[in-house]
Amino acid sequence: MSPAATSPAKADLSRARILDAAAALFRERGYSAVSLRDIAAGADMKAGSVYYHFASKEEIVLEVLNIGIAAVHDQVLQTVAALPEDTPADRLLRAGMLAHLRTLFEFNDYSSANVRIYHHVPEEVRRANATERRRYERLWDQLLQRPQVREALRPELDLKLLRLLLIGSLNATLDWF
Amino acid sequence: MSPAATSPAKADLSRARILDAAAALFRERGYSAVSLRDIAAGADMKAGSVYYHFASKEEIVLEVLNIGIAAVHDQVLQTVAALPEDTPADRLLRAGMLAHLRTLFEFNDYSSANVRIYHHVPEEVRRANATERRRYERLWDQLLQRPQVREALRPELDLKLLRLLLIGSLNATLDWF
DNA sequence: TAAACTGTCGAACGTTTGTTAGATTAATTC
DNA sequence: GAATTAATCTAACAAACGTTCGACAGTTTA
Fold first, then answer.
1. Which chain A residues contact residue B165 at CB under 8 A?
2. Do A72 and A103 meet the contact criterion of CB atoms below 8 Å apart?
3. pTM above 0.85, yes or no
4. B75-98: per-residue pLDDT in tens?
5. D21 C1' to A91 CA distance, Å
6. Spatial contact of B22 and B35, defined as CB atoms under 8 Å apart
7. A126 near B CB under 8 A
8. Looking at the partner chain, which of A32, A119, A176 has a beta carbon nearest the beta carbon of B32?
9. Would you say B100 and B170 are in contact if contact means Cβ atoms under 8 Å apart?
């Protein structure tokens, strides 16, 4: 078997274990309350070993945040892309919202960690995550601007504000459990 | 002037300064990221002095959380109590929601700190805050159970779930700014 | 088999954490 | 004005923090 195809697996697996542990811990305890020793223990290694895969705690949390948004983005995009362009507004929005919720509750830790810790992460990390965040907001803005959606809504409605209300409400359901 | 009427003021003022500083810091940075030295500095004193007024950091955050909910509770209660018992459902709910929002954005730090840090606070603190929290939830449950509100809603609607959605959405507006 | 590379460990670093305790100043009481 | 009390400060504590680094075993390459 080709060595280049098997050997990269080890490091990548450790990396993934670190991210998984970090996402789960951040989600339930917050960013500052989770130590690198906690993360390492969750990934079955010692604190020093983590630094073979990541340069800092901030680098870990940034990747967790990015993965969390990317997951929701991909799910929503994939869902609405499977529908015809002229799908009625209510069915289109319902599908998008459901995809968002499903990701939040099934691909649990990364996406919900993002919702919960975003505000309390170092400003530098927040800025670095903003690009991914804006990409997702753009997706919803495009959905809301489709003609059949605009026709279904009161014309004076602020679409950006509607998008904020929509995503905010979906994320707020995390508190239900 | 009676001595007992003036002298308690000093300690109470320091206590209030500590709580104000803590609420503001918790709100913007989270619970674990704020040190007692940060809080003390925000209250114009040194870390050791804080312990004259509070036994621990947890005692401070608990009081911040309790005040935060009590403020929203009192505002909403006061607002709806001023309305006639048979106020139409839409006006009643609108008034309650507006009171909630207004407190969140004007009596800013305590209430919004509560929304933001509740999930990441030590479990013991969360349990201690639950009493106050349930008191506020009960207030909304009572509003939603008034006859004119029940009539305005689909009868199969789960009122507890509606209350969760309602409060959750209102709190989510904090992300808008 | 020797050499090189991968991934993890153990121990230490300087800093910061929550908290305690004794000294010290400011205010009140007698 | 002396004695008490109230409130703050200074300095220290042990523990935990993020991070660094040299040693080391396991695997891959030559």
1. 169, 172-173
2. yes
3. yes
4. 999 999 999 999 999 999 999 999
5. 58
6. no
7. no
8. A32
9. yes
Go through chain B and tell me how many residues it has. 177
Instruction: Please name the residue that has the structure tokens 């969750």.
Output: A42
Q: Tally the residues of chain A.
A: 177
For chain A, counts of helices (H) and of strands (E): 10, 0
The pLDDT tens digits for A83-135 are 999 999 999 999 999 999 999 998 789 999 999 999 999 999 999 999 999 99
CA B109 to chain A, closest CA, distance in angstroms equals: 14
Å separating the CA of residue B14 from the C1' of nucleotide D2: 29
Cβ-defined contacts of B126-132 (< 8 Å, 24+): B128/B62, B129/B62, B129/B65, B129/B66, B129/B69, B132/B65, B132/B66, B132/B69, B132/B70, B132/B73
Model confidence pLDDT, tens digit, residues A14-61 = 999 999 999 999 999 999 999 999 999 999 999 999 999 999 999 999
Residues B30, A119: C-beta atoms closer than 8 Å: yes
What's the token pair of residue B30? 């989270």
